[in-house]
Amino acid sequence: MRGSFTEKVFNIVKQIPEGRVSAYSDIACALSRGSARAVGSALRRSPGMPEVPCHRVVLKSGRLGGFSGPGGVPGKKLLLEREGVRVYSGRVAEFEQIRWKPAP
DNA sequence: AGCGTGACGAACT
DNA sequence: TAGTTCGCCACGC
């Protein structure tokens, strides 16, 4: 069993709809606890797809950030594009519009 | 029980 | 504009 913080992060990430993305800081904020960095640490240890669609979590700036899963960051980009999320120059196109925020 | 390590973010040089 | 520094905080050793 992982720490409860990590479990909560997974729980939220699972709720991100296909074709939408969220930011590390958004998740940390929704939990009223931790930090974007802590969320990153949690996702790094996540089981990955299809259990947890961790590729839908990006930097607040709209840039991809990191990815430890198969294919590394390029793999993350492919997964997003496959869902209809356009990625341009390492950035999510129209990020603010497809940005999904977790329920408080 | 303490220390080092990041899939962050913002400020600073 | 690019590279560095600092604050952040859960987790593994």
Give an account of the 3D structure.
The structure is a single chain. This protein has 104 residues and is mainly alpha-helical. The protein has a single domain (4-98), classed as Winged helix-like DNA-binding domain superfamily/Winged helix DNA-binding domain (Arc Repressor Mutant, subunit A). It is built from five helices and four strands. The protein has helices at 4-13, 24-30, 36-44, 72-82, 95-98, and strands at residues 22-23, 57-58, 87-88, 91-92. The strands form two sheets. The chain has a two-stranded parallel ribbon with strand order 1-2. The chain has a two-stranded antiparallel ribbon with strand order 3-4. α2 (24-30) packs across α3 (36-44). It is globular, with a radius of gyration of 12 Å. The two termini are 25 Å apart. The structure holds a DNA duplex (13 and 13 nucleotides).
Note the topology.
Elements: H1 4-13, E1 22-23, H2 24-30, H3 36-44, E2 57-58, H4 72-82, E3 87-88, E4 91-92, H5 95-98
Parallel strand pairs: 1-2
Antiparallel strand pairs: 3-4
Helix pairs in contact: 2-3
The protein binds a DNA duplex (13 and 13 nucleotides) through residues 2-3, 5-6, 23-25, 28, 33-46, 54, 57-61, 64-69, 73, 76.
User: What percent strand?
Assistant: 5-15%
CATH topology label: Arc Repressor Mutant, subunit A
Mean pLDDT: 96
CATH C-level class is: Mainly Alpha
Overall number of strands: 4
The largest pleated sheet is described as: 2 strands, parallel
Uncertain spans, ≥5 residues at pLDDT below 50? none
End-to-end Cα distance, whole Å, is: 25 Å
From the coordinates shown, what is the CATH architecture?
Answer: Orthogonal Bundle
Succession of helices and strands: HEHHEHEEH
For the largest sheet, list the strands in their spatial order. Answer: 1-2
Radius of gyration, in angstroms, nearest whole number: 12 Å
Overall body shape: globular
Q: What count of domains describes the coordinates?
A: 1
Helix content: 25-40%
The helix-and-strand class reads: mainly alpha
